[in-house]
């Protein structure tokens, strides 16, 4: 099997968090402790984007010298909820631990082209806030993958079509186990503890709500962390949640 390049996600969060007496109120998308992330707040973000994003024109370009407009990628409600939940968790963790934001902060105008949305939207600002908060967290201690961890990554790769069906966990382990995977598993542990400690609970409408910590080069999630309770389906959802602003992390050594 050829080595597969994995990409570390900038937006990140694990463990199947099962809260006793899970909370579910009409109009509430998620809870982080006693803080409610409301459906109205999510709707306001979407409405602003719809108002700001121009309707694509069906007319041809005026000429070859006219640049094509940037591709607009409207986020889904699930995408917005995951970012708002993770931002709240990250900010609480940074405040509790006294972590300081990096000297060079990412701005909405810098991150907007990656998101495919206007820079002057609240959504772009929230993703920039999240990126800066995640960058303020210290690098986690690497965690060696267990056989179960490797099996889950291989299963995700097979489901995504990037690992051949006949490849075994043992065959893939030598290529998958490396600094990138161990770093992602370290982040997963740190964030799982924070998610549990801050009592994250998500409306059934958005379950399972997951954030990719490590993705295959084509974008499919390799390691993900659930935010809140798992969904009713016991099979892990390995589709790529949007939006994960990604940066290249190199090639996994064979």
Short structural summary:
It contains 7 helices and 7 strands; from the N terminus they run βββαααααααββββ. It is α+β, with helices and mostly antiparallel strands.
Structure overview:
With 254 residues, this protein is α+β, with helices and mostly antiparallel strands. The chain has a domain at 5-23 and 143-251. It contains seven helices and seven strands, in the order βββαααααααββββ. The strands form two sheets. The chain has a four-stranded antiparallel sheet with strand order 6-5-1-7. A hairpin with a 4-residue loop joins strand 5 (210-216) and strand 6 (221-226). Helix 3 packs across helix 4. The chain is globular, with a radius of gyration of 19 Å. The chain starts with a strand and ends with a strand.
The termini sit apart by 9 Å
The largest sheet has its strands arranged as 6-5-1-7
Low-confidence stretches: 1-21, 57-70, 232-254
Q: Measured on Cα atoms, how large is the radius of gyration?
A: 19 Å
Count of helical segments? 7
Biggest β-sheet description: 4 strands, antiparallel
**How many E strands?**
7
Task: Please identify the oligomeric state.
Answer: single chain
> What structural class is derived from the secondary structure elements?
alpha+beta
Q: Which range best describes the helical content: under 10%, 10-25%, 25-40%, 40-55%, 55-70% or over 70%?
A: 25-40%
Task: Please state the overall shape, judged from the principal axes of the Cα atoms.
Answer: globular
Q: What is the average per-residue confidence, as pLDDT, rounded to a whole number?
A: 79
Question: What fraction strand?
Answer: 5-15%
Note the run of SSEs as H and E: EEEHHHHHHHEEEE
């Amino acid at each position: 099997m050829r080595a597969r390049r994995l990409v570390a996600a900038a937006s990140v969060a694990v463990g199947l968090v099962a809260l006793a007496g899970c909370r579910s109120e009409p109009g509430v998308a998620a809870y982080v402790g006693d803080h409610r992330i409301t459906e109205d707040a999510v709707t306001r973000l979407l409405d602003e984007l719809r108002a700001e994003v121009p309707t694509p024109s069906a007319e041809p370009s005026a000429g070859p010298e006219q640049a094509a407009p940037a591709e607009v990628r409207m986020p889904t409600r699930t995408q917005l909820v995951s970012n708002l939940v993770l931002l709240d968790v990250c900010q609480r963790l940074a405040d509790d631990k006294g972590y300081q934001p990096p000297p060079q902060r990412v701005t909405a105008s810098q991150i907007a082209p990656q998101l495919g949305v206007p820079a002057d939207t609240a959504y772009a600002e929230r993703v920039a806030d999240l990126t800066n908060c995640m960058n303020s967290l210290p690098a986690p201690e690497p965690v060696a993958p267990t056989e179960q961890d490797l099996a889950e990554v291989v299963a995700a790769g097979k489901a995504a079509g990037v690992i051949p069906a006949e490849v075994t966990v043992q065959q893939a382990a030598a290529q998958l186990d490396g600094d990138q995977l161990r770093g992602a598993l370290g982040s997963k542990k740190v964030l799982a503890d924070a998610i549990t400690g801050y009592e994250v609970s998500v409306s059934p409408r958005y379950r399972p709500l997951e954030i990719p910590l490590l993705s295959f080069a084509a974008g499919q999630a390799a390691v993900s962390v659930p935010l809140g309770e798992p969904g009713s389906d016991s099979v892990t959802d390995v589709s790529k949640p949007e939006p994960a602003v990604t940066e290249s992390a190199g090639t996994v050594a064979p």
